[in-house]
Write a structure and sequence with these properties.
The structure holds two protein chains of two kinds. Chain A has helices spanning 9-17, 31-35, 44-48, 51-60, 68-71, 79-83, 90-102, 112-121, 156-160, 162-177, 194-199, 202-219, 229-238, 251-260, 290-297, 334-344, 355-367, 379-385, and strands at residues 4-6, 150-153, 182-183, 223-226, 247-250, 273-277, 303-305, 349-352, 375-378. Chain A is of the alpha/beta class. Chain A has a four-stranded parallel sheet with strand order 3-2-4-5. In chain A, α13 (229-238) links the parallel β4 (223-226) and β5 (247-250). In chain A, α1 (9-17) crosses α7 (90-102), α10 packs across α18 and α16 (334-344) crosses α17 (355-367). Chain B is of the alpha/beta class. Chain B has 19 helices and 34 strands. In chain B, the strands form eleven sheets. In chain B, strands 9-6-5-13-26 form a five-stranded parallel sheet, with helices on one face. Chain B is elongated and about 100 Å long. The two termini of chain B are 35 Å apart. Classes of the chains: A alpha/beta, B alpha/beta. The interface between A and B is medium-sized, with 26 and 26 residues. β1 (4-6) of chain A pairs parallel with β21 of chain B.
Chain lengths: 387, 741
């Protein structure tokens, strides 16, 4: 026993009231720690961050949970949460703990410009607000109105990132080919706030959410298509608390439905070995496992292979929980494990359906110098090429 | 009875293809001069059975020897009623299935086996069931807590008169001191109102129940079916005749004055769980100084799972503390609860209570308490190792510390009488047992038994018997311990245990009334007969009976109580004068079986090994070896014994003087986790074996010629090696010099 620490029930209660509502239900079995993707890599964060211990310290209000490499390590992949025998809402507990410090402005240095950008530009990618709709150049997309069925909400990443813009365009292309009635409100939208909430800035999240909700409600939006599973999750699970009740669907699921209805078909043969990386927020968090696979299998000539960890057990790319901005040394990135797995499976293309996953996997593929054998593609990009 | 023996050899199940059946038949007809000997290829089929039945009915055959499969199978098929003496020769499992077919040694084995069966049949008599006098079917329950009340009520509902004796002036026991009881019903998330009063009411209203409160057992004399019980109710003496007894005297909390290291007796706000029940019953939980309690630290395993105190887990304290935590949370949801524990053990549905208390925000700390300090306001601060954060912690001060103390069975108290008796009379007794059971004078039953007035206890003072095989049994026939006196248990388990025990009590009453053994030889009608004119009053039988079945008169003459008896034959094995016999199991009978074995001359180089195999595990293991077609040494001949403890030393001498080269005793595992159905039998055999060396030396023989092995039924695969290694040792020793004498 190293030192004697004082229990602080006040601290415990503060954490609980900040969102860690199920904190006391944790019985400390440690299943979470064992399932955590951080156990698969070695390094400083992996050694410091133990989700069970972090919750233990919070239960007693002890120091330790609030150290930066602990507090901001969780990628919110949900692997622990879906397996917890006590059904503890572990991600909420982490957010609750982050709220206690982030609310007071104590966040990792690297996240400060991100948060500033959100505050001033309404997006975390330092993009100018008036350039949000730039990706639409050359496309004929109607503005959302009461005559359009869906609102297409494009993730900030796809609004500003050069690669992301291509994704947005591909999604639009597919939806149009399938005859979906949709419109956009891009220029007036703000970041969905998912990452802000996860990093612990609840106040900022709420500002963003309220702005979007009032926009959507004002325009009579009922149904939303998202390009990112993170926006999907926030709209679906978090916005209703603030009065935003919408029917939300990820583009992959919508396309999957249209495929079954015969409204979408792929004719260009792609004689490739393809594997699919399940994004945490599409798969584990929202149970969309089949649509992406059905779409890929509808492409003529394609051979679908599964990664070692797949569907419910998919391994996180490392980009959730605001860690898409984190600097992780090479060799400690989960995305590298995914690339190695895909290469081992002799896949030609690694397909995924999330802008964060794309960012992480593209970096890892380049870092590992596997670009010559493996191509990383967003699903809409790949499917557009197969039309 | 004039015996007319019929031998029926089955040739089915490969027996006929493996043996020379004509030669085997001659063993019966020529050597044994048996008047009837028949063979059939399917003896257990309708034709084979008809053959036997017709001989019984028209030929007057009254002693049937069936040479076929193991006696452990088809016993229901080969049952020709109580007037027929039945003997089974195990040709299939122990001969043809585990030895080469049409081999000289296999044939010799089968012939010897039949010879032994014929000898046994010759010395077997029909059993006559023991009939006690004035046998009754009333059940006595000692102890009027939840277990006793349940047992008495369940017994009465099953149609038996019950008598309940409680030493306190009111019924209800431990439950009377509770504010609320642990959940017994869905959703199992919170305490329930104590329902003992309703149970008492139901009991008192039952016409077949007689209750004596403020009463103690002065004496229980006699035996199952005919116990004479004396009850002292506030000085009035009442007598009852009783069939069987349930001991339900419960447990008491571990003495907290031993827990000074946890602050008990040192700080006034360190109390026990029992005390907290009392405080909660009064309404708002207040300290002695009047302060309203807003925070409690429960300390689990206070003196439990601790080699310095109670080494065992009491099984219920976690649930009790969780329950008590809800008392405080009900009064004030903001109250603070710490639960310091070694582990939280909430079996079954109690997990839901645990979860609820977690949800309520209780703080669970797994780890050792390092200190408890009192502050100026008499609040307490606990320092402990928190295993889960890897640091030591100091709590904020709490109003109350509650120690969750474990259970001590009421049988664990009292003076150890046996030790005294043994030291006083050690010159007179020739006790062979190294582990005489502990009997404490705890003033619960006051049995008029030679072995002592209470139940013998195993580890930690619990009066149980065989916790794996026979959980409801004790070491006294017809007396069943139930509830927390038998093992630490909660309310639900006590209710279940009481119900189980009362069913055993009913079984005992009914079987005793017919003269049959109760357990484990259920239905056995034989019982030991003592040829008293040759008794030397050595007391071996009375001392060694593990069940206290035999009392003594003042001249040390044994006074057997057949309904207490388990018919194991340990007394028969113990008796140096060989005066104890059963109608169908006796020292001369086995002696004649030994003599029936043909021992080839030394130059034939066919040694012989005699196995005395316990019927309960070793004999089935030998059968299992056959069923699995394991091959083993063909020199062996097998005599089943009721218990290895029934082995009389004279058989060793008989075997050796017969020229047989070695003896293997196959008995059950003994020690703390014994598997002996008769508790001490195999251990007694081993002790006796220690004394065999003397006999062997007198005969000028090596003591290695007798070996004992402990074997469980699952050890059948080890049998070939056990036999081979023994045969190898005998080969080194050379032939028995008595061969041919």
């Amino acid at each position: 026993m190293a030192e004697i620490l004082d229990v602080s029930l006040e601290m415990r209660d503060y954490i609980v009231s900040s969102g860690a509502e199920t904190l006391s239900e944790c019985m400390q079995c440690g299943l979470c720690t064992n399932l955590c993707p951080w156990r698969l890599v070695h390094g400083e964060v992996s050694e410091s961050f133990n989700i069970r211990k972090m919750q233990r310290q919070a239960q007693l209000g002890l120091d330790g949970f609030d150290e930066e490499e602990v507090l901001f390590a969780c990628v919110t992949c949900g692997m622990c949460q879906v397996n917890c025998p006590r059904e503890v809402k572990i991600i909420d507990n982490v957010i609750g703990m982050r709220n206690t410090t982030a609310g007071a402005g104590f966040i990792p240095k690297i996240l400060k410009p991100v948060v500033s950008s959100v505050r001033s530009n309404g997006n975390p990618w330092m993009g100018a607000e008036d350039k949000r709709a730039e990706w639409q150049e050359g496309l004929d997309i109607p503005t959302f109105s009461e005559d359009t069925e869906y609102l297409l909400y494009v993730c900030c990443n796809s609004c500003y990132d050069p690669r992301g813009k291509k994704i947005a365009k591909s999604v639009v292309n597919l939806l149009q080919k399938a005859g979906v009635s949709f419109g956009v409100l891009t220029a007036e939208e703000k970041c969905c706030g998912e990452s802000m909430r996860k990093l612990g800035d609840e106040e900022l999240y709420q500002q963003l959410a309220e702005s979007n909700i009032s926009l959507f409600n004002g325009k009579g939006v009922k149904k939303i298509i998202t390009t990112s599973p993170h926006c999907l999750d926030t709209f679906k699970k978090d916005y209703p608390e603030l009065g935003g009740e919408f029917e939300v669907i990820h583009y992959s699921e919508l396309l999957g439905n249209l495929l079954k209805e015969g409204k979408l078909a792929f004719s260009a043969e792609q004689a490739k070995k393809v594997t699919f990386h399940d994004p945490c927020y599409l798969g584990r968090h929202n149970q969309v496992f089949d649509s992406p696979r059905e779409l890929l299998q509808a492409v003529p000539g394609l051979e679908l292979v599964e990664l070692e960890r797949t569907k419910r057990n998919s391994l996180c790319c490392g980009g959730g929980g605001a860690r898409v901005w984190a600097e992780v040394p090479a060799g400690e990135r989960f995305s590298e494990l995914r690339i190695i797995d895909a290469v081992d499976k002799k896949a030609d293309i690694l397909v995924t359906a999330c802008p964060y996953c794309i960012t992480m996997l593209v970096d890892a593929c380049a870092g590992l110098e596997k670009g010559d054998v493996l191509q990383v593609m967003e699903m809409s990009e790949f499917l557009s090429s197969a039309l | 009875m004039d015996k007319k023996t019929g031998v029926y050899i089955c040739t089915g199940c490969e027996i006929g293809d493996s043996l020379d059946i004509a030669a085997l038949s001659k063993v019966a007809t020529k050597e044994g001069k048996v008047p009837v000997c028949k063979t059939h290829s399917f003896m257990c089929g309708s034709e084979g059975l008809a053959l036997i039945k017709s001989d019984i009915e028209s030929e007057g055959v009254n002693t049937v020897v069936i040479a076929a499969c193991s006696p452990r199978v088809n016993y229901d098929v080969f049952d020709f009623g109580p007037s027929i003496i039945m003997e089974r020769t195990n040709l299939r499992e122990q001969i043809t299935w585990c030895h080469p077919a049409n081999d000289e040694d296999t044939q010799m084995m089968a012939e010897d086996s039949l010879r032994m069966s014929l000898a046994k049949a010759k010395h077997t008599e029909l059993t006559e069931p023991y009939q006690g006098e004035n046998m009754v079917k009333t059940i006595l329950v000692v102890g009027g807590g939840l277990t006793g009340i349940t047992a008495a009520l369940e017994g009465a509902k099953a149609g038996y008169k019950t008598v309940l004796v409680e030493k306190n002036p009111t019924l209800g026991g431990w439950m009377n001191g509770l504010f609320k009881q642990a959940p017994q019903k869905s959703p199992y998330t919170g305490p329930e109102e104590v329902d003992i009063a309703e149970r008492v009411k139901e009991l008192e209203a039952h016409p077949d129940v007689t209750v004596y409160v403020g009463a103690e057992m002065q004496e229980i004399a006699g035996a199952p079916g005919m116990f004479d019980v004396t009850i002292n109710q506030n000085g009035n003496i009442i007598t009852e005749r009783i069939g069987s007894v349930i001991l339900a005297t419960g447990a008491v909390p571990y003495d907290p004055t031993n827990l000074g290291h946890l602050g008990y007796g040192k700080y006034e706000n360190v109390i026990t769980g029992q005390k907290l029940e009392e405080l909660a019953s009064k309404g708002k939980i207040l300290r002695t100084d009047g302060k309203e309690v807003q925070s409690i630290a429960f300390i689990q395993c206070a003196g439990s799972r601790d080699p310095e105190h109670l080494p065992y887990c009491s099984g219920t304290c976690c649930v009790e503390s969780l329950k008590q935590a809800t008392y405080l949370k009900e009064q004030n949801p903001e109250a603070t609860v710490y639960i310091f524990n070694k582990d939280i053990r909430t079996p079954g549905q109690y997990e839901r209570l645990y979860k609820r208390v977690q949800k309520d925000g209780a703080i669970f700390v797994r780890g050792e308490i390092t200190s408890i300090q009192e502050d100026d306001e008499k609040n307490l601060i606990i320092e402990a190792a928190d295993v889960l954060s890897g640091s030591g912690i100091n709590t904020e001060s709490v109003d109350l510390v509650v120690l969750a103390t474990g259970m001590v069975p009421t049988t664990a108290f009292g003076e150890n009488l046996i030790e005294q008796v043994e030291s006083d009379e050690s010159d007179k007794t020739d006790c062979e047992s190294s582990v005489e059971p502990v009997i404490l004078k705890s003033n619960l039953l006051n049995l008029a038994y030679r072995q002592g007035p209470e139940m013998p206890t195993l580890k930690y003072g619990f009066p149980d018997s065989h916790f794996i095989c026979f959980p409801y049994e004790t070491r006294r026939t017809g007396i069943y311990a139930a509830g927390s006196v038998r093992a630490p248990m909660d309310e639900i388990s006590s209710i279940e245990d009481a119900t189980g025990a009362v069913m055993k009590a009913v079984q005992c009453i009914e079987l005793s009334a017919t003269g049959a053994a109760v357990h484990p030889r259920v239905g056995d009608m034989s019982f030991p007969d003592f040829a008293m004119q040759r008794c030397t009053q050595c007391k071996r039988c009375t001392v060694e009976c593990p069940f206290g079945a035999i009392n003594e008169d003042e001249k040390y003459n044994p006074l057997p109580n057949p309904t207490r008896c388990r018919r194991c034959g340990i007394c028969m094995g113990a008796c140096p004068e060989r005066i104890i016999s059963f109608k169908n199991y006796s020292v001369p009978m086995v002696g004649n079986m030994i003599k029936a074995i043909e021992v080839p001359d030394e130059d034939e180089e066919k040694p012989r090994i005699l196995i005395f195999a316990c019927e309960n595990d070793a004999y089935p293991a030998l059968d299992m070896a056959g069923i699995n077609r394991l091959n083993y040494n063909a020199w062996v001949r097998v005599i089943p014994v009721r218990c290895l403890g029934s082995l009389n030393i004279v058989w060793i001498a008989d075997t050796m003087s017969q020229g047989i080269d070695g003896i293997l005793l196959l008995g059950c595992k003994h020690g703390d986790d014994y598997q002996c159905h008769f508790i001490q039998g195999s251990e007694l055999a081993e002790v006796r074996l220690g004394k065999v060396a003397e006999t062997l030396n007198r005969l000028d023989l090596e003591s290695d010629r007798v070996r004992m092995e402990q074997i469980s039924i699952a050890d059948y695969d080890k049998i070939p090696d056990i036999l081979d290694s023994f045969a190898k040792r005998l080969d080194e020793l050379g032939p028995n010099p008595y061969k041919g004498f």
